[in-house]
Amino acid sequence: MFSRRDFSLAASAGVLLGGCAGAGSRPDTPAEPAAPSPLSEIMQGTAVPGMAALVIRNFGIETQYISGIRVLGSPAMIAPNDRWHQGSNGKAMTATLIAKLVDAGILSWERPLSQMLPEFAANTQPAYRDVTLPDLLSHRAGLPENTSDMDFFFTFHTDPTPLPEQRLRYISRCLQEAPVGPARAESVYSNTGFLIAAACAERATGQTFEDLIVRHVFEPLGIQSISFDQFGAPNEPQGHVDGRIANQQNDVNPRMFAPAGAMRMTLPDWARFASIRCKASMAGVVCCGERLTLSCMPLRVRHALRLAGAPRQTRWAYAVRR
Fold it and tell me: Cys-Cys crosslink for 316: which of 16, 90, 176, 195, Cβ 3.0 to 4.6 Å?
């Protein structure tokens, strides 16, 4: 399994630079890539095969930069509308889906895990039984980052059962592992929390996470380039690790891991999501074309949805940072 650091180093880099401070052009009308690209200078002396970057200003794409090749050893150059693996940036998308379902009355911010997935209550660590969606989405449920059994984790690469069933089997094991700390205390990064939140959404709706996030988040925003494949197509940028293409099965996470960050899309589509989340964080009104009252959300969920938590001058990369 890639750690957050490993993935940011291994993948061909995709960066989004934002200064969101008012109404402006739509994020689906990017400017022509600048020439020469400043990314070429940034890449000098590194092993990074290719990069792409967007500058967002006033909620619209001001400039798009690209540089380099899609795959080491190939002459194919990065193109403006290539799809990029979003890594853990997908967590903000998952949190947005959960917020939409709460807004629709399908889920609740206050309902404990023991009520959302009651079949696990008997074998779950007692410390997890009363955690809520805000705890799961803000890395404050006391959960470890991932399962400690990597052999078990890698079995999901070849698991033929439906993805919701795979997620339930995975989190059932995770909920039996000892917590790393008390719930609602210090934030401890956890992929598992987002998988549990997605499983709660699947249980409440009877639909897969993938169908839910497309219907409630991506389609309303006009995001059409979404893919849940971990490996890029032959004509897309590929991840790299240890100086080689990351094309071996265990180089990536299984597909069931999508809620924690296993989605691919173009940077202009990513900009659509980032811009609307930035607007919602600032105004608390519009998300995915419908009203979403952020003031009714727990504060820690609002921070999760705000990506880096700084709407006016924010930088996004595979690992969100200021």
Answer: 16
DSSP conformational letter for 217:
I
- Which three-class secondary structure state does DSSP give residue 315? strand
Residue 246: which residues within 8 A CB-CB, separation 6 or more? Answer: 10, 11, 238, 239, 240, 252
Give the model's pLDDT for residue 244. Answer: 87
Residue 40 buriedness (CB in 10 A; 0-12 / 13-18 / 19+): middle
Q: For 240-256, write each residue's pLDDT tens digit.
A: 888 888 888 888 899 99
For residue 233, what are the CA distances in angstroms to 99, 224, 228? 31, 16, 11
Sorted by sequence, the CB contacts under 8 Å of residue 217 that are 6+ apart come out as: 93, 96, 97, 100, 223, 273, 288
Residues in the chain: 322
Calpha distance 37→1 (Å, rounded) = 33
pTM of model > 0.85: no
Q: SS3 string of 219-262?
A: HHHCCCCCECCCCCCCCCCCCEECCEECCCHHHCCCHHHHHHHC
The single-letter code of the amino acid at 310 is: A
